[in-house]
Specification:
This protein is of the alpha/beta class and 412 residues long. The protein folds into 2 domains: 40-228 and 308-387, 3-Layer(aba) Sandwich (Rossmann fold), CATH 3.40.50; 230-306, no CATH class. Helices cover 36% and strands 14% of the residues. It is built from 15 helices and 10 strands. The protein has helices at 9-13, 46-57, 71-80, 110-113, 134-145, 175-187, 200-212, 230-237, 242-259, 273-277, 282-293, 299-305, 337-342, 372-386, 397-405; strands at 40-42, 89-95, 101-107, 120-124, 149-154, 193-198, 218-224, 319-324, 346-351, 408-411. Strands 1-9-8-7-6-4-5-3-2-10 form a 10-stranded mixed beta sheet, sandwiched between helices. The radius of gyration is 20 Å and the shape is globular. One of its GO terms (molecular function) is monoacylglycerol lipase activity. This is AB hydrolase-1 domain-containing protein. It comes from Gossypium darwinii (Darwin's cotton).
């Protein structure tokens, strides 16, 4: 589906040298008692990663009173009323191989302030989301405050980035992700790279991890509110109150589309430009434009072949997945629990509540950072501490440099 963001869903309403991740780490055998029974904690890497998270996981998940009694209230509250940290960003416009453009937002001054081997964190927002969204800003400031170099990957048309070809991004398209990771890695070859994705950004990230498998240049990743199975997510998207999210996202997609409508005016074949331009649902937009752009026979074919649930078994880098049992957008029944439990690189945490990109709980609730943010940073810092200072993944650093050199950069 275009990009099931849905952290951004409600902002819509408002409208190299890369080291092995855990070389030399001592793994402590943990027991069920090391996490609170209010949380589901499973995965093939559970015992491997629990030492980094046990301080938080031993406490009960206590959703904030009044706000978290209903999943839709929590989701909307987090989108509308959660604080948005103020931070100065420096935008880099990246022209990729097919002529398309993405926008990379870096924290201003970090290229002078931070040493070249500071770990780099790439953030992938949800559908139509970008560096303006509160959940992105909180994660950005949390990581940056700990000395991490952070960059937000705004997909084509998102975060006020330009669309320069008659093609948006999609759940199926990994080309821009490949180029962004290579470009960032070439810019900071002494640093380890990590990534965090939300909603459809998480779906794209997990697909990338699975497709790259052993050759993945990332040292670790975190997936938050991942819909995992887009066919199931689409089914639930048309039920009850979820129709409100569907219409909101469709309006946001149409707004981006109309801003660049001239690029699409001569499209023929199976394209249905009027349907895309006036879409009443995400499915309408995907039928009129997305599935045709990326060569799928139908919307269901597109959703089925763009789901990250099939990628988990191929992930060969440390991956933490955090989901909410009552997420209205990323259904719990779509989580590939069996594959996560069998993969020695993956761990899953499921909270009883949280809504979609809500998680209004923890020390900073209700207006501050989501409950997940300290957990994400504990996990990433654990990986970074355990990374070897001399080793490399099998990715060819020179090839990364050459690939990145083919990109045209314009900084604004």
């Amino acid at each position: 589906m275009a990009k099931l963001s849905l952290g951004s869903t409600f902002s819509i309403f408002h409208s190299r040298h890369i080291r092995p991740p855990l070389a030399g780490c001592h793994v402590t055998k943990m027991t069920v008692a090391d996490h609170h029974p209010s949380l589901e904690v499973v995965g093939g890497a559970r015992d491997r990663f629990l030492p980094s998270l046990h301080t938080n996981l031993r406490l009960p998940y206590n959703p904030f009173p009044l706000i978290a009694w209903n999943r839709h209230v929590e989701t909307i509250f987090a989108s509308f009323l959660r604080s948005i940290p103020q931070v100065r960003l420096r935008r880099e416009c990246l022209r990729v191989k097919d002529g398309g453009s993405v926008a990379l937002d870096w924290v201003s001054g970090d290229h002078r302030r931070l040493p070249p081997d500071s770990p780099v964190l790439i953030l992938l927002p949800g559908l139509t989301g970008g560096s303006q969204d509160s959940y992105v800003r909180h994660m950005l400031t949390k990581a940056n405050g700990k000395g991490w170099r952070v960059v937000v990957f705004n997909s084509r048309g998102c975060g006020e980035s330009s669309v320069t070809t008659p093609q948006f991004y999609s759940a199926s398209f990994l080309g821009d992700t490949y180029e962004v990771v290579k470009h960032v890695g070439a810019r900071y070859p002494e640093a380890n790279l990590y990534a965090v994705g939300w909603s459809l950004g998480a779906n794209i990230l997990v697909r990338y991890l699975g497709q790259e498998s052993h050759a993945c240049p990332l040292s670790g990743a975190v997936s938050l509110c991942n819909p995992f199975n887009l066919v199931i997510a689409d089914e639930d998207f048309h039920k009850g109150f979820n129709n409100v999210y569907d219409r909101a996202l469709a309006r946001a997609l149409c707004k981006i589309f109309k801003k660049h409508a001239l690029l699409f005016e001569d499209m023929g074949g199976e394209f249905n430009i009027p349907l895309a331009a006036n879409a009443k649902s995400v499915r309408d937009f995907d039928e009129g434009l997305t599935r045709v752009s990326f060569g799928f026979k139908s919307v269901d074919d597109y959703y089925s072949n763009s789901s990250s649930c099939d990628s988990i078994k191929h992930v060969q880098r440390p991956l933490l997945c955090i989901q909410a049992e009552n997420d209205p957008i990323a259904p719990s029944r779509a989580i590939p629990r069996e594959d996560i439990e069998e993969n020695l690189n993956c761990m899953l945490i499921v909270t009883p509540k949280g809504g979609h990109l809500g998680w209004v709980a923890g020390a900073e609730a209700p207006l501050g950072a989501p409950w997940t943010d300290p957990m994400v940073m504990d996990f990433l810092e654990y990986l970074e501490r355990g990374a070897s200072k001399t080793g490399k993944f099998s990715a060819d650093s020179e090839a990364v440099q050459r690939s990145s050199g083919e990109l045209h950069r314009i900084e604004v």
